[in-house]
């Protein structure tokens, strides 16, 4: 039986291991950390449990199908529920908006709160759906880097509708032209942050992201987000995948332009195929240091990062949902600071996720676990300790103003994650959460392919390669890799 080695047990690596085992490979996974999941992992502070990364996910069918590959019922191993409310939004001028999962209810909410006619927003969402439907076969389900992809009927249809994708204008300009109302423009601009991009630069094609959330809905696992990683870890083990946790890979070995295995602690581990779920930049710089480097791809602008405060809050806030966003009044200035690395905006947009609303055991009774995130530049050697403490002050002041309370005395447990810590924990180059940014209209084509053009039997999955970052796209990258690898 041919052997496959997967480097990294992030969500993409777990999915790749499961799919390759199903294809007939004997699979081993090497992970530097002593836990699986990468950014999608968990930890505890005192009596509070936290998800280290994402707090919601979309398109759960991509998780389910990994179980059904083996004839298992996903509900026997992994349970989740659809959120009635995706998020609550707060502005300093007193405007509040509830993003209902039901589209008709959301259209009514926007009309009532922002006086935007239902027909205006429905037209906007319909256009986003058309973009998604026309580009899904090209951008999400197949390699962009093989000629046969472009000869498919679906691809030719997509190319014929090029101008409907609004690639030559920014997301912000599309939103201003079609929606006009400032709060709603800002609401939809924020979807650029789903892949760490700037709404004032990323192309208008990005409106397809909001279609995913509104159409497919948002979901939360009944045991918290970490259960996605844990359930896939257990599935992989049931199918014979062998995991080596706490084992950092030092090198990918290449013989006659063909990947032949890896080196860990000086020991060679042979393989017929090697799949890297590690960020593509350190994969080349560290594991393939003696091989040809794809400099154009590796030197692309990085996505945004984040500063995250994990707070155990000694009080319950009934007016808040699982996911809440407190907007900056000057969104453009905020993104200018992020992508020009000018420091941090002093009135940032604040993302507060409270999983204990849906997973009560995540916090003691009457208390809440707050994941408080602010988008930030990737790491270019800023003084993050000083910046983070200043940011903490601004965030608390902002929350106090909007919630009309005093947050600081309620913080019982605290930990902070900055871009350098994110990089150290996840090997995400410069702490960028999504690899390269999508601020260029050709960004989708410039992401590293899911295979190596120069080294046979070497493949790549995860958020730093095609089709991009986020749970659904990482899972799709694993599916593409499994399709590309030869039959064992």
* Largest beta sheet: strand ordering: 7-6-15-16-17-14-18
Q: Average pLDDT, to the nearest integer?
A: 91
The CATH superfamily of one domain appears as FAD/NAD(P)-binding domain
Helical percentage? 25-40%
Instruction: State the secondary-structure class.
Output: alpha/beta
User: If helices are DSSP runs of H or I spanning 4 or more residues, what is the number of helices?
Assistant: 16
CATH architecture of one domain: 3-Layer(bba) Sandwich
Low-confidence stretches: 146-152, 158-163
| CATH domain class of one domain | Alpha Beta
Q: How far apart, in Å, are the first and last alpha carbons? A: 7 Å
Please count the beta strands (DSSP E, at least 2 residues each): 19
Instruction: Assess the beta-strand content as a share of residues.
Output: 15-25%
Radius of gyration: 22 Å
Give your account of this protein's structure.
- This protein has 488 residues and is an alpha/beta fold.
- Among the domains are: 168 residues, 3-Layer(bba) Sandwich (FAD/NAD(P)-binding domain); 109 residues, no CATH class.
- The chain contains 16 helices and 19 strands.
- The strands form 5 sheets. The chain has a 7-stranded mixed sheet. A 5-stranded parallel sheet has the order 9-2-1-13-19, covered by helices on one side. Strands 10-11-12 form a 3-stranded antiparallel sheet, with no helix packed on it.
- A hairpin with a 2-residue loop joins β10 and β11.
- α3 packs across α4.
- The longest helix is centred in the N-terminal third of the chain and has 23 residues.
- The protein starts with a strand and ends with a helix.
């Amino acid at each position: 039986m041919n052997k496959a080695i997967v480097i990294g047990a992030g969500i993409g690596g777990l999915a790749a291991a499961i799919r390759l085992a199903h294809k007939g490979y004997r699979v081993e996974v090497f992970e530097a950390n002593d836990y699986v999941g990468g950014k999608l992992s968990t930890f505890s502070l005192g009596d509070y449990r936290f998800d280290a990364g994402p707090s919601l996910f979309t398109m759960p069918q991509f998780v389910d199908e990994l179980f059904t590959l083996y004839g298992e019922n996903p509900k026997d191993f992994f349970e989740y529920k659809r959120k009635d409310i995706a998020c609550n939004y707060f502005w300093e001028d007193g405007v509040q908006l509830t993003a209902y999962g039901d589209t008709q209810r959301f259209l009514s909410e926007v009309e009532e709160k922002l006086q935007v006619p239902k027909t205006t927003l429905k037209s906007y969402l319909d256009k986003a759906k058309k973009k998604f439907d026309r580009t899904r076969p090209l951008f999400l389900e197949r390699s962009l880097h093989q000629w046969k992809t472009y000869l498919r009927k679906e691809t030719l249809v997509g190319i014929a509708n090029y101008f409907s994708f609004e690639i030559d204008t920014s997301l912000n300009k599309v939103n201003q032209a079609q929606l006009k109302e400032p709060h709603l423009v800002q609401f939809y601009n924020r979807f650029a942050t789903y892949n760490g991009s700037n709404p004032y630069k990323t192309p208008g094609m990005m409106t397809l992201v909001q279609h995913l959330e509104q159409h497919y809905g948002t979901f939360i696992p009944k045991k918290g987000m970490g259960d996605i990683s844990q359930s896939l870890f257990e599935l992989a083990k049931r199918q014979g995948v062998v995991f080596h946790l706490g084992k950092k890979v030092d090198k990918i070995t290449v013989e006659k332009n063909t990947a032949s295995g890896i080196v860990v602690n000086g020991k060679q581990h042979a393989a017929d195929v090697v799949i890297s779920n590690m960020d593509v930049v350190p994969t080349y710089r560290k594991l393939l240091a003696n091989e040809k480097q794809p400099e154009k791809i590796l030197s692309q602008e990085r996505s945004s990062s984040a500063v995250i405060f994990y707070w155990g809050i000694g009080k319950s806030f009934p007016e808040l949902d699982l996911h809440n966003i407190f907007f900056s009044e000057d969104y453009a200035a905020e993104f200018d600071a992020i992508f020009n690395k000018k420091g941090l905006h002093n009135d940032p947009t604040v993302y507060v996720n409270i999983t204990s609303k849906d997973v009560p055991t995540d916090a003691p009774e009457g208390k809440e676990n707050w994941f408080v995130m602010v988008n930030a530049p990737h790491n270019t050697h800023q003084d993050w300790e000083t910046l983070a403490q200043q940011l903490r002050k601004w965030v608390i002041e902002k929350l106090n103003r909007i919630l009309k309370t005093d947050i600081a005395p309620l913080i019982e447990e605290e930990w902070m994650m900055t871009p350098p810590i994110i990089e150290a924990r996840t090997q995400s180059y410069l702490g960028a959460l999504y690899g390269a940014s999508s601020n260029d209209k050709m960004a989708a084509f410039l992401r590293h392919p899911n295979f190596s053009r120069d080294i046979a039997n070497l493949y790549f999955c995860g958020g730093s390669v095609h089709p991009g970052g986020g749970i659904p796209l990482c899972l799709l990258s694993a599916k593409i890799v499994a399709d590309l690898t030869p039959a064992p």
